[in-house]
Design goal:
With 200 residues, this protein is an all-alpha fold. The protein has one domain. Helix content is 80%, strand content 0%.
């Protein structure tokens, strides 16, 4: 993969990864609620699932495009319901009080969020359509998948840190409900948005 292609790929991915979506909103909300450290497990789960799914789609280029087109509506609906469910959990939550029993978000939360995140499938589909072209070499597929995953990881880490910094000012009962309401509303709107995006 040529250097100019890598630069073009990063330019393509940067605004998509950093713009608000299910992943970004979830990690910002989790960072605010639990702090940066207690979102690491979910972050790892999300990005481990990301690189596996991306590699599988890249290796089965034609098959997975057909699969996504056939099952996209189901993935979209399930993902939307899951994000709306997460918004409900944030809405009902009170102020976060650190105890030994609090584990924050889990590895499984991250994996589920990726698997049922339609935005991820749209971006992966577009990415391979544009940058894989006729060169479907294993090395290029691996490199594209790594760049995509690392770019996402950077984005979500920054969103988590932003949430954590914001959350330190609101981790008391007086402000917790307001913060929870903001993030719950954001996640709920993202969940609704997921129902209306279309695959190209």
């Amino acid at each position: 993969m040529k250097f100019v292609e890598i630069v073009a790929l990063l330019v393509f991915l940067f605004p998509l990864a950093f713009s608000p979506g299910p992943g970004n909103m979830f990690f910002a909300a989790s960072g605010a609620k639990f702090g940066f450290k207690k979102t690491l497990s979910a972050n790892f789960g999300y990005h481990l699932a990301t690189i596996i799914v991306t590699l599988l789609i890249g290796l089965g280029f034609g098959f997975f495009f057909s699969f996504i087109e056939d099952y996209y509506e189901y993935i979209k609906i399930i993902g939307s319901i899951y994000v709306i469910f997460l918004s409900y959990k944030f809405l009902k939550a009170g102020a976060y009080k650190s105890t030994t029993r609090d584990i924050g978000t889990t590895f499984t939360d991250g994996v589920i969020l990726l698997i049922f995140n339609p935005k991820a499938y749209v971006i992966i589909s577009l990415m391979f359509t544009i940058f894989l072209n006729n060169n479907q070499s294993l090395l290029k597929i691996i490199l594209i998948s790594i760049i995509f995953t690392l770019n996402n990881c950077l984005s979500f880490t920054l969103w988590t840190i932003f949430g954590d910094l914001l959350g330190t000012k609101f981790r008391n009962e007086a402000y917790a409900k307001k913060l929870n309401y903001v993030f719950a509303t954001s996640l709920f709107l993202v969940g609704l948005w997921m129902l209306f995006i279309k695959i190209n």
